[in-house]
Amino acid sequence: MTLQNNLTFTLQVNNQAIAIPADRIVEMFHQLYYAIKDQTWENTYYLGRHIIKCPLDLWVCQEIFHEVKPDLIIETGTFHGGAALYYANVCDTLQHGRILTIDIDRYSGVTEHPRITYINGSSTSESVVREVEAVVKNKKTILVILDSDHGYDHVLQELQIYSRFVTPGSYLIVEDTNVNGHPVRPEWGPGPMEALEEFLRNDNCFKIDIGREKFMLTMNPKGYLKKILSDGSA
Ligand SMILES: C[S@@+](CC[C@H](N)C(=O)[O-])C[C@H]1O[C@@H](n2cnc3c(N)ncnc32)[C@H](O)[C@@H]1O
User: Fold this and answer.
1) Domain residue extents for the chain
2) Which CATH architecture group holds 50-227?
3) Is the pLDDT reported for residue 233 higher than 70?
């Protein structure tokens, strides 16, 4: 899909016409959405559970789940379990799929759901990876969503560990690639975007699926990676 972000809009300011390219409008809206977090991304709930996601990205996930029909969705970064519950409810409707969600902290009140398994520990620790390896066995279609520690080293390590679980045709979603000036939080320092770029420099199994950015506002620019080739492990 080619994104139609090459349009230009004209704004009248003090009797002057100012042309603003669509991608700049999207960028400004992204910065606004992010800046007023008490109103937006820190004030988003799924069935009463706090969820740190833009609803447009949740819709994209739902479309991907319907297409891919994963047997297993692995999420790093459970937080209050809002996303895990949303994923489980989409799987309920599809009548297919389980969720494995991992967090270093234990948050009280996460929803018990027959499709969700919670793992407590760091997503990159040997013991957690061993637990994940036990669950992925015999699963034919696996999708991974990385949404835990958004520091460069951690995301790169997660990419190196979890990319091999993703099955060809499925997705590896890297969340919050928008920080470090892409286009928000310029002070962040290297984060998910830079880890993703480094990972892709040495990988030929994944391709950025830019069509998943069709709603223009996404917290995960370049973060929807489709596995197009097998690396021999999945
Ligand atoms: C952005 S929140 C996750 C949001 C959640 N996926 C959602 O959509 O609502 C990040 C979570 O990652 C967890 N986290 C931080 N470092 C981690 C690590 N090394 N391993 C696993 N989870 C970690 C934090 O405790 C926090 O709950």
Assistant:
1) 50-227
2) 3-Layer(aba) Sandwich (3.40)
3) no
